Amino acid sequence: MLLEVRDLHVEFRTRDGVAKAVNGVSYGVDAGETLAVLGESGSGKSVTAQAVMGILDMPPGRITGGEVFFQGKDVLKLKEEERRRLRGYGMAMIFQDALSALNPVLSVGDQLGEMFVVHRRMSKKDARAKAVELMDRVRIPGAAERVRDYPHQFSGGMRQRIMIAMALALEPALIIADEPTTALDVTVQAQVMDLLAELQREYHMGLILITHDLGVVADVADRIAVMYAGKIVESAPVHDIYKSPAHPYTRGLLDSIPRLDQKGQELYAIKGLPPNLMNIPPGCAFHPRCPMAQDVCRTDVPPLYEVSEERGSACHFWRECLHG
Amino acid sequence: MAEPILEVSGLVKHYPLMQGVLFKKQVGAVKAVDGVDFTLGKGETLGIVGESGCGKSTVARLLCNLERPTAGSIRFKGEDITRLSGKALKAVRRNIQMVFQDPYTSLNPRMTVGDIIGEPYEIHPEVAPKGDRRRRVRELLDVVGLNPEYINRYPHQFSGGQRQRIGIARGLALRPQVIVADEPVSALDVSVQAQVINLLDGLQSEFDLSYVFIAHDLSIVRHISDRVGVMYLGRIVEIGSDAEIYDHPTHPYTQALLSAVPVPDPEARERRERIILTGDVPSPTNIPSGCRFRTRCWKAQERCALEVPALAVPEGFRGASGPAVHDSACHFAEEKQVVPPEAAENGNGPG
């Protein structure tokens, strides 16, 4: 396994109390595989990724437990200098908002080239040539002329391509993409997702795709991990989860999205609100919103039950959910 | 169609681009809205979809009289509202209210919920006498599914979905006949989106409202709309009933837009034909000649560069009947099914 996260816990100490953002997350990604981490805002999907990358703000953040194995090494035990080397070479991240992730006062060529100057000790001239090559690879038209342009001179889709180029620069084994297409229009979204999937195949990289969009996930992922209140509540191959979800939260999410091919009646809505991370309900965190909740859900935290060899569901009543 | 409540014709909004410090001169214009026509029937929901920069939000602002159009007219119950001022304008504004996109910035953080929802009554005191306002605000909170006891709380004490309900309550306060909702759910989480859409649906029949629903999410627009208009670079390129647009699109842009929407069904991955457009939307300061979509269109021919296609039933379809016959601004309009109908069978019913 390329990356394996085991029982990760992250909390944030704030003036108002301790927010438990990640409460025992475990997942793994193989080379060439795409894992989608699906969740709403506050589910802990991005915080998990930041902990894996080693870019979590600490303080206020704190990793209070767990291990992150990357290519066999526990990266949480590495020194900061070693981790820095790992970022870029080993794993790289693509952020949601390309305009704020890029430096507005440096040309894109300088920003792409910087990777080679810092990590590979290349000369500025060679680095510039490499930058053009990368921009070509992510299909930015007229790369040789545009390498001198600044981020604001590119459209949203083109900026996201530059982010992808930057992540690819040192040919990492793993890419973590945090909502890479959320800020883009649908027609551009499709272009960027296709490019990402193609490059992943070409380089045989592991890809973790963090998103809230069930549609995007269905189009590209191999496996899905659904997160709720800092935990994985369901993990399954992509085909299984859409056909027969084994957790009421996943089922609720699937039912509550309007579909292009159907003119529905009233939409199914999950009642209530996502929990406050400073005050997560006891037992199963989803129980106050769950249509299937029983007494046991209010007291006992459900473990990730094995539904099949490849599937897990953290619901005491996963059998009923699967068949109901 | 029911009797029209809004009739928009030839609507144009150009923002001048100025150059020079002392002697300013106009060097061009951002053509945000460049000739839009539609009608909204009473009790109907018209969805307007398009990508960012297509002018859909400018249309919303024009409808609410927040901006004056460069040309064209907006008739509310037969009266052109674009040239009104003073008392007459105020009266019309009461009847067309807006719900904004971002529930985090559209509510004043220093005002209580009661003051926010009650503020429209300060501007239009004739709607509710002073002594009656608190009661009305409580009623409105109840209508949108919030606890009336929350009347003295501040916006930051609410979640995104609850804030959007506050925005909707404010929109309803003056009992308008038309509500213009500009991306009302795009800032919300999936599980909360459904709650707000159901609320809007319910309010429509309860208060006999007509909606103009503006969004970039095609699935949501289909869910809530009776008719749908697709906008591209300041113009409506195709308009029709939801089945006409989604199941029988004839404009290549609509087809590309529909085919690009990710469908939450991994099996549709293989079955679906995807049309991936090349390039980006051209700048609204420099709109292509003829058909404005031609620079990204795979069907474009010489005629497209010379002749602006009108929004009407295309030549090839005249005299025919069926759902493919509707207004589409393309010289080479052809029906093409992009949303696979079989996918419907795999859908999960409400669980």
UniProtKB/TrEMBL annotation, chain A:
<dbReference type="InterPro" id="IPR027417">
    <property type="entry name" value="P-loop_NTPase"/>
</dbReference>
<keyword id="KW-0547">Nucleotide-binding</keyword>
<dbReference type="InterPro" id="IPR003593">
    <property type="entry name" value="AAA+_ATPase"/>
</dbReference>
<keyword id="KW-1003">Cell membrane</keyword>
<dbReference type="GO" id="GO:0005886">
    <property type="term" value="C:plasma membrane"/>
</dbReference>
<feature type="domain" description="ABC transporter">
    <location>
        <begin position="5"/>
        <end position="254"/>
    </location>
</feature>
<keyword id="KW-0813">Transport</keyword>
<comment type="similarity">
    <text>Belongs to the ABC transporter superfamily.</text>
</comment>
<dbReference type="InterPro" id="IPR003439">
    <property type="entry name" value="ABC_transporter-like_ATP-bd"/>
</dbReference>
<protein>
    <submittedName>
        <fullName>Methionine ABC transporter ATP-binding protein</fullName>
    </submittedName>
</protein>
<dbReference type="GO" id="GO:0016887">
    <property type="term" value="F:ATP hydrolysis activity"/>
</dbReference>
<dbReference type="InterPro" id="IPR017871">
    <property type="entry name" value="ABC_transporter-like_CS"/>
</dbReference>
<keyword id="KW-0472">Membrane</keyword>
<dbReference type="GO" id="GO:0005524">
    <property type="term" value="F:ATP binding"/>
</dbReference>
<dbReference type="GO" id="GO:0015833">
    <property type="term" value="P:peptide transport"/>
</dbReference>
<dbReference type="InterPro" id="IPR013563">
    <property type="entry name" value="Oligopep_ABC_C"/>
</dbReference>
<dbReference type="InterPro" id="IPR050388">
    <property type="entry name" value="ABC_Ni/Peptide_Import"/>
</dbReference>
<dbReference type="Pfam" id="PF00005">
    <property type="entry name" value="ABC_tran"/>
</dbReference>
<dbReference type="Pfam" id="PF08352">
    <property type="entry name" value="oligo_HPY"/>
</dbReference>
<keyword id="KW-0067">ATP-binding</keyword>
From TrEMBL, chain B:
<dbReference type="InterPro" id="IPR013563">
    <property type="entry name" value="Oligopep_ABC_C"/>
</dbReference>
<dbReference type="Pfam" id="PF08352">
    <property type="entry name" value="oligo_HPY"/>
</dbReference>
<dbReference type="InterPro" id="IPR050319">
    <property type="entry name" value="ABC_transp_ATP-bind"/>
</dbReference>
<feature type="domain" description="ABC transporter">
    <location>
        <begin position="6"/>
        <end position="258"/>
    </location>
</feature>
<dbReference type="InterPro" id="IPR003593">
    <property type="entry name" value="AAA+_ATPase"/>
</dbReference>
<comment type="similarity">
    <text>Belongs to the ABC transporter superfamily.</text>
</comment>
<keyword id="KW-0813">Transport</keyword>
<keyword id="KW-0067">ATP-binding</keyword>
<dbReference type="Pfam" id="PF00005">
    <property type="entry name" value="ABC_tran"/>
</dbReference>
<dbReference type="GO" id="GO:0005524">
    <property type="term" value="F:ATP binding"/>
</dbReference>
<keyword id="KW-0547">Nucleotide-binding</keyword>
<dbReference type="InterPro" id="IPR027417">
    <property type="entry name" value="P-loop_NTPase"/>
</dbReference>
<protein>
    <submittedName>
        <fullName>Peptide ABC transporter ATP-binding protein</fullName>
    </submittedName>
</protein>
<dbReference type="InterPro" id="IPR017871">
    <property type="entry name" value="ABC_transporter-like_CS"/>
</dbReference>
<dbReference type="GO" id="GO:0016887">
    <property type="term" value="F:ATP hydrolysis activity"/>
</dbReference>
<dbReference type="GO" id="GO:0015833">
    <property type="term" value="P:peptide transport"/>
</dbReference>
<dbReference type="InterPro" id="IPR003439">
    <property type="entry name" value="ABC_transporter-like_ATP-bd"/>
</dbReference>
<dbReference type="GO" id="GO:0055085">
    <property type="term" value="P:transmembrane transport"/>
</dbReference>
